[in-house]
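In this section we walk through a basic example: taking a raw amino acid sequence and producing a predicted 3D structure, encoded as discrete structure tokens. The instruction is simple. Fold the sequence below.
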Amino acid sequence: MTPTPASLEALSRLRELNSENGWYIIPLLAIVLYIYGTEIKSARKSGNWSTVFAGLTVLGLDLINEIWNGLVFVVIDYSAFWTTPGASAYIILIGWNIEIAFMFSIAGIIFSKFLSDDKSKKIFGLPNRWAMAIGFSLFCVIIEIFLNIGNYLIWAYWWWNWYNPILIFLIGYFHFFVIAFYVYDLPERKSKVKVVSIIYAIGFVLLCIFLPLGIAGIINF
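The resulting token sequence is shown next.
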């Protein structure tokens, strides 16, 4: 199959700093570091690291998602499930840019701020953790639809599109927030460390396997 125009555009810009609008990633990085610095300082005082680990959980899961999405393009040679071809300071993978990475790095922290201290509390008849995971996932899908309308995020398959968003909801976001609240609620810090370490180990092993192979969409140095 012939790669889509969006795929070719993304590959042509893969891991090349956009000279026209690259500077704004510096203040974005500063904001992310400030947020984590604030949360880590608070955690050191309180001994509660749940928010920090919720943030790391979502970012790690997004890394895994972006790797398999790049591999979809490699296998089909047409399009990944989602592609981010332009308007980015730095495209990391065919469907993952620096702006998305920064967003996901704090998405879990934001999510945790909305979780009730009372795990038994219900929202619309649902346990609040599950209700919040559903709500955040729906919100993220709506944002993605607007990004797709603006041609910032390109979808090429009928099963992954605005008129059929169930997989975007389930695979793109829902499990992120479910695992985030699972980690958030774990009673011991060592348990949180174990789960988050497994997530990042999977991501880094996948990178170590596929980066040296020189596969298009995964590596293009």
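Looking at the output, two observations stand out. The chain has one domain: 5-213. Strands lie at 82-83, 91-93, 96-97, 122-123, 126-127, 154-155. In the next section we compare this with other chains.
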